[in-house]
Amino acid sequence: WALQILISDSLLAMSSAPTTSPSVDKVDGFSRKSVRKAKQKRSQSSSQFRSQGKPIELTPLPLLKDVPGVEQPELFLKKLQQCCTVFDFMDTLSDLKMKEYKRSTLNELVDYVTVSRGYLTEQAYPEVVKMVSGNIFRTLPPSDSNEFDPEEDEPTLEASWPHLQLVYEFFIRFLESQEFQPSIAKKYIDQKFVLQLLELFDSEDPRERDYLKTVLHRIYGKFLGLRAFIRKQINNIFLRFVYETEHFNGVAELLEILGSIINGFALPLKAEHKQFLVKVLIPLHTVRSLSLFHAQLAYCIVQFLEKDPTLTEPVIRGLLKFWPKTCSQKEVMYLGELEEILDVIEPTQFVKIQEPLFKQISRCVSSPHFQVAERALYYWNNEYIMSLIEENSSVILPIMFSSLYRISKEHWNPAIVALVYNVLKAFMEMNSTLFDELTATYKSDRQREKKKEKEREELWKKLEDLELKRGLRSDGIIPT
Amino acid sequence: SSQQHQEAVHHCASSRCGEDSHGKLYKNDTETQLYSLKMYSIIHIFYSSYHLWKYTIYDEDEVLLALAEQLGNFTMLVGGPEYVHCLLPPLESLATVEETVVRDKAVESLRKISQEHSPVDLEVHFEPLVKRLASGDWFTSRTSACGLFSVCYPRVSSTVKAEIRQHFRTLCSDDTPMVRRAAASKLGEFAKVLEPEYVKSDIISLFTALASDEQDSVRLLAVEACVSIATLLPQEDLETLVMPTLRQAAEDKSWRVRYMVADKFSELQKAVGSEITKNDLVPAFQNLLKDCEAEVRAAAANKVKEFCENLPEDNREQIIMTHILPCVKELVSDTNQHVKSALASVIMGLSTILGKDNTIEHLLPLFLAQLKDECPEVRLNIISNLDCVNEVIGIRQLSQSLLPAIVELAEDAKWRVRLAIIEYMPLLAGQLGVEFFDEKLNTLCMAWLIDHVYAIREAATCNLMKLVEKFGAEWAQNTIVPKVLGMANDPNYLHRMTTLFCINALSEACGQEITTKQMLPVVLKMSNDQVANVRFNVAKSLQKIGPVLDSNALQTEVKPVLEKLATDSDMDVKYFAQEAISALQS
Questions:
Q1: Per the CB < 8 Å rule, is B178 touching A7?
Q2: CA B184/CA B172 separation, integer angstroms
Q3: FRET pair for A261, CA 20 to 30 Å: which of A4, A205, A214, A435?
Q4: Minimal Cα–Cα distance from B253 to chain A, Å?
Q5: Residue A279 at interface with chain B, using a CB cutoff of 8 Å
Q6: What is the pLDDT of residues B200-258, one digit of tens each?
């Protein structure tokens, strides 16, 4: 688009016939016209529908509350079976009556599992899982726009949501029901089921991902036997996302679930969990779309460090390794996360990592991008970080000094200069002897540099003179 | 870069003495590191591969990538094939790195140096490495292993071969999908180096298993392998060993797998041969053309021409007419524009296969429908393939519908579309003839000269030149030169400049006579323009058309004007006038 706008600087109205009067420089050759097409809301549906053509007929059943209690479980099963029928929502005109009938039946089922007692017979479990699977498990359709940018574009919404939502709602109520027995359900809610559930997290519809989050959370909570499997599969999804496709819509949601999973890890942490942190969570920082899940990711990282402070060093080294080189927005995010980590860091861990860490911070502070510089300088407003810096000022001050001093003189942004001034003042109060020493060294270093610069310039001048002389002479004889 | 060079030499020197090269490599910026790595290679320093790796492993992936690449060229530097195995430890480590590009490069280098191992070294050094990778803890080493089986298999003893097959089998059922994907993508390659009996006994079962994997990303890779496997098997085995799986893939519930089948359709067709194509692939192709997912239909539509071309000749026409054409007809009015434009880019090719009568009766209506399609890309794709039809039935049949389509594209809101149609103008003009052109298209070509996008005006200028080359100077003099010169009086300076650009392009094709008599006076007159941009373009034009003019005109008319411009108040005008003067003098 931008290119097009740039180029389509348009001329004056073409229709006006060229007159012969030549005196005309009032004409502005460039006028702008650009109209952006209004975006239409997009919706999509699973790719499972082949043109079926035939209308769907369901025989209406009586309401559950209208039949005697003993008949209810039987009727409940029948209704579940009816709800296995799936409708094509891309065709907005077909089967309207039956779509409405299924909607009301689903609604009834949602209410029924919430309030009823004694309905969950053993036969009901496979039927529930069958109904839920039949409705929610589907191949997600290809993304409409090739370059779907979650920050810019509207997500494509699931067309069958009116039914889908109720199915999710029903399933969650079922899982949360007091009568629900994982020992029976585990026969049906197995690894294959979970795998398909996880694939759905790639749905473009945020509403669906939200429901999936709750569903997966409940399953993780109730099925101990599936926990390791779920973690492993999430692992695989992330690794594929980082190293193969860079595309998966549900990363934030999965991280959110992981946040609470990590919270519940027993101490000491298993090697598997540490590996997950270092080999999966840290590399997640490299992904282009980091901003979409950074908050959840940072939360997970901090959870890990609160569990086991000895992980601080590998984590920070990992972040430094992947530190963004050209993307300032990402740099700001990294700085934010680093501050969250520093908030919980143990002083003994801080000492281990302070040198490489502050070398990076010193680079950030002198970034020409003022948001990066500003974000880094905000560290000095954090009391805990300040106390750590103060304790280790003899190490940190020399690392930071030249950057700070230089930008206090050179940075283009006055707000940054003011912030730097405060930081320098804080350093001076911390350790005035060292500060003075550093000032002196800095100045003499600069002088030496200037001298060098001058010498270099003079040398070039000499060379130029030589060249000139040579040029003059080369008209005649080639010098030897 | 001389500084970089010195740095690099310094690294090498210090590493030779076993000094602190780690520190140096670590501290300097990536570029220097990259440079120094290349220098290592050049000046023959490879004192210990293991240390080199160890020093850099904590560093940038970019550096590791360069390292992985360079190590593949190190054979001579470490003393020749005899010692090449000493490159294995660092490459083995690089093959376990997470970053995919580094790992892939390491595997590539390993594949390369595997050829430089003697058969004995291959068994003593290389094959154990493959085994170690194949049984590594982390998925990265196992994915790397997948790419190495096929390079060592042909050159090892039969016991080792059996082990390799076993390892490959294990990786095909690895519980990490990443590894299964890597194995699936190398399945075809591995099958090719296996003895025929093992293709049947081993590969088929692996192929079947991967093709029904729970993850569609694995299944779709099996489709690719299907092509190589099918070519390795005798025709009589295909039906029982390959076809069930292929049929299943063509109807897979995931559109990605079906897409892959559509995308590889021509290769599959060639691999399975004509009998199976007739019985199985024709209906499968019909289904793909009618798939519910536009992505799949578009991929299949792209293959229509190739598929038809490769049908067995004896009943090709009948198959196309009864089975393929009905689907194609439906696709012409598909709801998705990508499908239609994919079809439009190949549909014209059918006319050569079907011949004149069928083309006129069956295809022409489709071409005409697509020429009227609402989506400009579809129309454009039809127009850009006109030459195929031209050979069979001539373009005249189309001209009635062609014209409105061209006019509409010529005025399309998207400048890229306009640009594309301009590029086809010379071709169209040649095929439609000068009369038709003058009558219908000339106005369009002139209108583009005053388009509001520069790229269009530029292309229009170039287009005029090509037209003059086709129709000759006389035609130019009567039809376009007057109009172009008329624009010299336009109130808009951009239009006035267009006159100059046209003259630059046309003078050579029009020849000395027209240039001197008609164009030159206009250019000279424009040297008094009030806009400096016009004046310096006058200087540039004079430089450009100078060689076409005779020396008399140059001396008496051009020179004085340029000399005047050389004293212009505007810097740029002065500059270009001087440029022109010195260019014309020489």
A1: no
A2: 7
A3: A205
A4: 7
A5: yes
A6: 888 999 999 999 999 999 999 999 899 999 988 888 888 888 889 999 999 898 999 99
Lowest-confidence range among B174-178, B290-294, B324-328, B582-586?
B582-586
Alpha-carbon span B311 to B308, nearest angstrom: 5
* Nearest CB to B450 within list A11, A27, A48: A11
Q: Specify the pLDDT at position A15.
A: 36
The minimum CA-CA distance between A291 and chain B, rounded to whole Å, is: 21
Where helices occur in B394-519 by DSSP H, the ranges are 396-410, 415-432, 434-436, 442-448, 454-471, 473-479, 481-486, 493-514
| Greatest mean pLDDT among A58-62, A363-367, B384-388 | A363-367
- Interface A–B counts its CB contacts (< 8 A) at 87
Region A22-51: what's the mean pLDDT? Answer: 47
- Put residue B18 in one of left, alpha, beta given phi > 0 → left and psi -120 to 50 → alpha: left
* Confidence check: pLDDT of A206 > 60: yes
Q: Could you give the CA distance from residue B488 to residue B59 in angstroms, rounded to a whole number? A: 63
Q: What is the mean pLDDT of chain B?
A: 84
**Which of A11-15, B414-418, B512-516, B578-582 has the least mean pLDDT?**
A11-15
Question: Which tokens sit at A5?
Answer: 């706008």
pLDDT in tens, B498-528: 999 999 998 888 888 888 888 899 999 999 9
Which among A254, A263, A216 is positioned nearest to A235, based on CA atoms?
A: A254
Contacts of B422 (CB under 8 A, 6+ apart): B410, B448, B456, B459, B460, B463
Residue B43: pLDDT band by 50, 70, 90 thresholds? very low
Least CB-CB distance to B178: which of A4, A50, A236? A236
CB contact under 8 A, B292 and A51: yes
User: Residue A439's CB: how many other CB atoms inside 10 A?
Assistant: 14
Q: Is A192 on the interface with B (CB under 8 A)?
A: yes
CB contact under 8 A, B493 and A29: yes
CB contact under 8 A, B178 and A20: no
Q: Which of A14, A33, A139, A230 should we substitute to test contact with B (largest number of B Cβ atoms within 10 Å)?
A: A139
- Torsion angles phi and psi, residue B20, rounded to 5: -80, 65
Q: What is the pTM of this model?
A: 0.75
Which tokens hold the place of A203?
Answer: 């749905």
Partner B contacted by A7 (CB < 8 A): yes
Half-sphere exposure of A7 (CA within 13 A, CB side): 14
Beta carbons of B415 and A20 less than 8 Å apart: no
The alpha carbon of residue B408 is apart from the nearest alpha carbon of chain A, in Å, by: 17
pLDDT in tens, A117-140: 777 888 889 999 999 999 999 888
Residues of A in contact with B181 (CB under 8 A): 244
Q: Which residue has the tokens 């999966």?
A: A280
Cβ-based interface (< 8 Å): residues of B facing A = 58, 98-100, 138-139, 176-178, 181, 214, 216-217, 253-256, 292-295, 414-415, 447, 450-455, 486-487, 489-495, 530-531
Measured CA to CA, the distance from residue B82 to residue B467 in angstroms comes to 66
Which CA distances in Å does B109 have to B42, B75, B191?
Answer: 17, 11, 22
Look at residue A388 in the predicted model and tell me its pLDDT. 94
Q: Using the predicted structure, report yes or no on whether residue A51 has a pLDDT greater than 80.
A: no
What pLDDT is recorded for position B47? Answer: 45
Query: Exposed e or buried b for every residue in A210-243, given b needs 16+ CB within 10 A?
Result: ebbbbbbbbbbebbeebeeebbebbbbbbbbbbb
Q: Is B63 helix (H, G, I), strand (E, B) or coil?
A: helix
Query: Between B178, B253, B452, which is nearest A239 by CB?
Result: B178
At a CB cut-off of 8 Å and minimum separation 6, what does A470 contact? A479
Which residues in chain B touch residue A240, judged by CB atoms under 8 angstroms apart? 177-178, 217
Q: Tell me which residue in B138, B491, B530 faces A19 most closely, judged by beta carbons.
A: B491
